[in-house]
Amino acid sequence: MTECERLIADGIFSRTYFEAETRNDFSVDTTRKKVWAIEIDLLLQLDRVCKKYGLQYYLMFGSLLGAIRHRGFIPWDDDLDVCMPRMDYETLLKIAPDEFKAPYFFQIPETDPGFFYTFAKIRNSNTTAFLELFQYQRFNMGLMIDVIPMDVCDEHDVEAHFHEIQTKTRENTTYMRMSNPNLSPADIERVKAYPGGDPLKRYYEIHRIATLHEDEANNLTGRITAVLTTYSCRKMILNAADLNKTILWPFEGFKFPIPAGYDNILKTIYGDYMQFPPIEERGTWHSDYLIDPDKSYKEYFH
Known about the structure:
By secondary structure, this protein is of the alpha+beta class. It has one domain. It has helices spanning about 5-10, 30-55, 60-70, 85-100, 160-175, 185-190, 200-210, 230-235, 260-270; strands spanning about 20-25, 25-30, 60, 80-85, 105, 120-125, 130, 145-155, 220, 235-240, 245-250, 255-260, 290.
C-alpha cells in the first residue's frame, strides 16, 4: 500500500482528490496532488503535536499566500512552509523525536547525522524528495514540510547577523556536498575553499546568533535562519504584532492556523500579492529534486 492509498483508506482524503484538474489555467496532475496530500498529512501530524503541547505555529510565505489567494496550495507550488515562535520551536525540538513515529520522521542534525540544514523538516520516510547533490550524506530524503523558527530581530544589526548566518549556512551546505564524488566544477571549487570545522558546532552557532535578542522586547521578528539573500532578508523582517495571534483558515478542505496580520505580512513579502505571476513563471520550486510520492527514497540510493 502506498502512502496515498493509506490516506484514502484512513479517510483523510477521498479518491477524487487525486484526480488531475486545472486551477488558474495551470494543469495540476495526479503526481502533484499526491505530493500535496502527503504534505498535508505531515501538517496534520504537526498540528496534532502542537495542539497536544499548546504550541503555536502558522502557515507562512508561499503557503500563507496560497491559503489566502487559493484556499490551498498555489497551483504551481509543491511545498509547505510553517513557522513557529522561537520558544515554541525549541519545545518542539525536545518533544518531536518521541511524537513522530514511522513513517513520519522529525529531522534535525541530532536525529539524522549528516543533515545540517538550519531548520527542521518533517518527512514521510515512505516517499521521495531525492536531492542528488546530497545523496551520499544518506540522510532521510522523504517528502517533507519545513518548520522554521521566527526570531526576535533588532533593526540595527539584523543584516549583520544575517550575513554571519548566511556564511555559516553556506559552509555547512558545502560540507554536505563533500561526500559526493560527482560534483560539478563549481562545486569542486566550493569544496576546495571549505574552511573546515565541525558542522554541528556551526549549526549551533547559527542558532546562537539568531537568538541573541530573544529575551528583549522588540517589535520585529524574522526568518533569519532560512534566508538566501540580503534582499530576501529585508522581506522577511516583519512586525511581531502581525504574528502574535492566529486564526483558522481553509486550506485544501482543511483548516490550519495563519497569522491574524496576514495582509500586512503578505504585502511586505510580495507587494500586490493577489496578482498572479506571468504564466511563464508558474512552475515548481523544486526542479532539482526527484519526486516520488509512491516509493521510499531508500530505493533511489545507489
